[in-house]
Amino acid sequence: MFILKAMKSRPWLLVALSWLLPGSGFYLLGKRRDGLILFFSVLYFFAVGLMLGGRFVGPNEGSPLTVFLTFAQLGNGLLFFLGKLLGLGAKVKVSWSSDYGTFFIMGGGLINYLATARVGSLLEEK
Q: What is the pLDDT of residues 80-112, one digit of tens each?
C-alpha cells in the first residue's frame, strides 16, 4: 500500500517503473492478471528473439532506421539492459532468422510502450 500511495502522488514514477519492468504498472494498480500476462508476453518476445539470433541494434550503424530500431528495443526496459550487459544477442547478422529475431525483440519493446501508455491513462482516470 505504501508504494501505491507514493505512486499516486508522483504518477510518473509508476509510468517509469512500468517501462522498466514490463507489467509492473498494471500489477501495482491491482490488475495483477494483466500485469503477469504482459510481463510474460514481453519476456517471450525477448527470449524468442534471442533464440532466433536477434541482435541489439545501435543508432549509429549508418541508417536512419536504426534510430527507430534502437528506440523499439529500448522498450523492453530492464530486459534490454540486462541483455546488453550479459552480452546476449548476435554480434553480427548470422542468418536469415536473425532479422526475425531482431524484430521479435523490437516487438516486445513496442508492446511494452503501449502498455506503459495505458498505465499512464489509467492513472489519469483515477
A: 999 999 989 877 766 777 889 999 999 999 999
User: What's the domain range around 84?
Assistant: 19-116
Nearest to 22 by CA among 44, 55, 51: 44
Whole-number Å distance between alpha carbons of 99 and 106? 11
Grid coordinates given for 85: 550487459
Q: What is the tally of structural domains in the chain?
A: 1
Give the pTM. Answer: 0.88
Q: Would you say residue 3 lies in a domain?
A: no
- 110 in a domain, yes or no? yes
| CA count, 13 A, side-chain hemisphere, 47 | 6
